[in-house]
Amino acid sequence: MHQYSLVLLVLLGLAAASAQSEQTPTAEQGRQLWIKEVLGAKGDSRACTTCHGTDLTQAGEHQRTHKLIEPMAKSVTPSRYEDPKKVAKWFRRNCKWTWGRECTAEEKRAILSYLKSQ
After folding, report:
1. Per-residue pLDDT reduced to its tens digit, 37-68
2. What is the CATH number of the domain that holds 77?
3. What is residue 39's three-state secondary structure?
4. Is 33 a member of any domain?
């Protein structure tokens, strides 16, 4: 077999393996991230559920300000995820507060998959 053909076959095999490992995140993966608890800077336990709750069809309450948070379930608030700028803004803010860092693109996709499935 020609050397270039062998290299091409190896590269195609690697690309196929990579594509299989980069599957679309599932709603269940998003749910697991949603309930994931971490320690905050002050030693308090935090999760998305801290403010948004576990029943996404119900309103939540901001932990510090006690302001009402509209339900996160797409079935209840259908337009909630239509503005990409707002979605990006809230992910940036909430991931930093909850997890102490920005969410990865895969985490965002998984969480959105979960929220949209509700």
Report:
1. 998 778 889 999 999 999 999 999 998 899 99
2. 1.10.760.10
3. strand
4. yes
Structure tokens at 30: 């998003």
The rounded distance, in Å, linking the Cα atoms of 65 and 80 is: 21
**Domain residue limits at 46:** 25-117
pTM, two decimals, is 0.76
Question: The tokens of 78 are what?
Answer: 């259908």
Provide the number of structural domains found in the chain. 1
Q: Name the residue among 40, 77, 43, 41 with its Cα closest to residue 58.
A: 77
pLDDT digits (tens, 9 = 90+) for 92-117: 999 998 999 999 999 999 999 999 99
Beta-carbon neighbour count of residue 85 at 10 Å?
7
Pairing of strands 38-39, 45-46: antiparallel
- Is 81 within the bounds of a domain? yes
